[in-house]
Specification:
Layout (H helix, E strand, L loop, with lengths): L6 E6 L4 E6 L2 H7 L3 H11 L13 E4 L13 E7 L6 E7 L1 H8 L4 E5 L6 E6 L2 E6 L8 H12 L4 E4 L2 H4 L7 E3 L3 E3 L4 H7 L2 E7 L9 H17 L3 H7 L4 H7 L21 H7 L2 E3 L9 E5 L5 E4 L1 H7 L8 H14 L3 H16 L13 H12 L5 H4 L3 H8 L9 E2 L2 E2 L9 H9 L12 H6 L7 H21 L4 H4 L7 H10 L5 H24 L12 H4 L14 H15 L9 H6 L3 H8 L7
Parallel strand pairs: 1-6, 7-12
Antiparallel strand pairs: 1-2, 3-4, 3-6, 4-5, 7-8, 9-12, 10-11, 13-14, 14-15, 16-17
Helix pairs in contact: 1-2, 2-22, 7-21, 11-13, 12-14, 17-19, 19-22, 19-24
Length: 611
């Protein structure tokens, strides 16, 4: 094969052994890579019903055929596992030098199983694998641990590691790289910690064999130039995703006080314009000429990389309007190795719990910098009430009881990311049907929705959500490549099948990649959820209760809330368009058409399938 290395590295931490799997080309042709490889490997190798934090769980790190190649924004990998936060399929992507080094070491994926008796890290260099004691690294934050690894192995290695949050198995801990690159929102860092695995260090010098390197270089050069010449490039380079703060406030979707409102009176104080004046540096992923990591000095004079989601969730959602103080929370999340989105959501939930006096002796107020900072420490080290909140809002609400479940902002157990949906039915559907829980990355439909019939629940919105899921959650997550050059700067989708052909020789159309490959992966992820949950029904695809029960009290959409009957009808249309039944389960005929006959037969033994 061209483009793919054809090899997957399998690591057994219990026995401290490794082997290389030379996989059949059908895996590459049918699942491409990234999320496709991840779900197929987890489906095939993971026993049903295992505890996500047990040695039996599997951690998958998967590249795509474009990962690490000299093309725009290709420095991405997907990390996936059974999620300790949701008990379903969990993944995330991360932009890091480790992506490039894994491919140059000769692997398309790494599969990690078992559990080491003592803390270790793994050093992978081409065909060699060393299991090395991590006693000196365990307990260190990600910044300090990474410095020690670099001192030993040099600056050119790729590093994936966890902090104290992953070690303590906080349910929304992530994997960190390069002091601010973070991935794996559904607790993938906790899976790594449960295996006593502190870090994975990668080095390699073997680029995959390519089908047409001359044409790939030509296409790549043209694509890089297209990005630079875009009229959107200047603002993107200056502000990146931080420009979204003003846009979200103008469109009443900026999360405020645990998603109670969509507008924040002090939004200008945390805007991209303010950030731009404070900016001291810019960071980005490998192979990127549109870097979006904006660096400022936080309130404690440390550099921190900001983006929209972090500032919205740790700022307006907590009623905090000081960008430098928000930066402290952001930096702590990166150092501890915890997801900024879920952290901001959990903190907002905790403050509202305190405000409603649901928990005795919990005292936490909106905008309380010192109190929130302490709670972050308590969550990471699982102290006092932090131990409850370290489970995420869904499980915490079950423990707390009373009206806590009414204000827990999640879907399928994953906390909602930074867009309020009281007045955004399409985005609510996007959250409801995301394959990992309430995340925007699969279908950021809110921008399109704001330009059309904002409050409608029509079929056009359903079609748009599915279209975006096929592109963002299908195409980009399997290639694996960053979606920002397309969605933010306007690099056309037609570039990607051409780049894929030049790298691999495989001539797949855009429609085939999105409608066949993408739909196959979405269906298999859905089957994974059904296999693990068992009694599946459409309630798993509903957005949080608060958006249905408590209307907005200010802004353009004052008095608006979601309509449950209209949402339910929209969800039915979504299922129909995907070839799923009214429970949200793919029909047997749909699965057969997608090449998932064996998987359909297996699920049939758990829950009846519609024809």
């Amino acid at each position: 094969m061209f483009g793919w290395t054809g090899k997957i590295l399998i690591l057994d931490l219990t026995k401290q052994r490794f082997k290389t799997w030379s996989y059949e080309k059908e895996l590459a042709y049918n699942y491409i890579g990234g999320r496709g490889f991840a779900i197929k490997i987890l489906w095939d190798l993971l026993p049903r019903g295992i505890d996500p934090l047990s040695p039996e769980n599997i951690l998958v790190i998967a590249a795509g055929p474009l990962t690490g190649l000299p093309i725009p924004s290709s420095g991405k990998i997907v990390i996936a596992s059974k999620s300790p936060l949701t008990n379903g399929y969990g993944d995330g992507n991360i932009g890091t030098l480790a992506s490039v080094k894994m491919r140059y070491a000769g692997y398309d994926a790494i599969v990690i199983k078992g559990k080491s008796k003592r803390p270790i890290y793994i050093f992978i260099e081409n065909d060699t694998v060393d299991f090395i004691s991590a006693d000196e690294l365990w307990g260190l934050n990600t910044f300090d641990a990474e410095k020690k690894i670099i001192e030993k192995h040099g600056r050119n290695v790729g590093i994936l590691l966890i902090g104290p949050a992953g070690e303590n198995q906080v349910s929304f801990s992530t994997i960190i790289s390069q002091q601010g690159r973070s991935g794996g929102r559904p607790g993938i860092g906790a899976v790594m910690g449960s295996k006593n695995l502190k870090a994975i260090v990668l080095e390699g010098n073997k680029m995959p064999d390519l089908y047409d390197i001359k044409n790939l270089r030509k296409l790549s050069s043209e694509a890089y130039n297209t990005i630079i010449k875009s009229k959107l490039y200047d603002l993107w380079k200056r502000q990146g995703t931080m420009a979204t703060i003003v846009w979200s406030n103008e469109n009443s979707v900026l999360p405020v006080m645990n998603f109670s409102e969509g507008v924040f009176d002090k939004y200008q104080e945390i805007s991209g314009d303010v950030m731009e004046k404070m900016k001291i540096d810019q960071r980005g992923c490998p192979m990127c000429n549109a870097q979006c990591g904006n660096v400022i000095e936080d309130f404690e004079d440390f550099p921190v990389e900001l983006d929209y989601e972090n500032v919205a969730m740790l700022g307006s959602n907590l009623f905090l309007s000081n960008l430098r103080k928000i930066g402290v929370f952001n930096r702590l999340a990166d150092m501890y190795g915890v997801d900024t989105i879920s952290l901001g959501n959990v903190l907002g939930f905790a403050i509202e719990i305190s405000e409603r006096k649901i928990l005795k002796d919990l005292s936490l107020e909106w905008g309380d910098f010192k109190g929130i900072r302490k709670m972050i420490d308590d969550i990471v080290y699982r102290r006092e009430y932090g131990k409850i909140f370290s489970q995420g809002v869904h499980k915490a609400s079950k423990v707390i009881g009373k009206e806590a479940e009414e204000i827990a902002m999640h879907v399928k157990g994953l906390e909602v990311s930074g867009y309020d949906c009281h007045a955004a039915p399409g985005m609510a559907l996007s959250y409801g049907t995301s394959p990992i829980g309430a995340h925007h990355k699969d279908a950021w439909v809110i921008s399109w929705e704001a330009q059309h019939d904002r409050l409608s629940y029509d079929n056009e919105k359903v079609q748009k959500v599915i279209q975006l899921q096929r592109i963002r959650g299908g195409l980009f997550e399997v290639l694996v490549s960053c979606r920002f050059p397309w969605v933010e700067i306007g690099l056309g989708l037609e570039w990607y099948p051409k780049l894929l052909k030049a790298a691999t020789g495989v001539n797949y159309s855009l429609d085939y990649l999105t409608h066949i490959i993408g739909d196959r992966i979405y269906a298999l992820i859905r089957l994974f959820w059904i296999r693990e949950i068992g009694n599946w029904d459409r309630s798993y695809d509903y957005p949080p209760k608060k958006w249905f029960s408590k209307p907005l009290t200010k802004g353009l959409f004052k008095g608006i809330k979601l309509d449950p009957a209209k949402y339910d009808k929209m969800l039915t249309t979504y299922y129909s368009e995907r070839g799923w039944d009214n429970r949200g389960i793919p029909k047997k005929s749909t699965l057969i058409n997608l090449g998932l006959s064996k998987e359909a037969d297996y699920i049939q033994g758990i829950i009846p399938l519609s024809p």
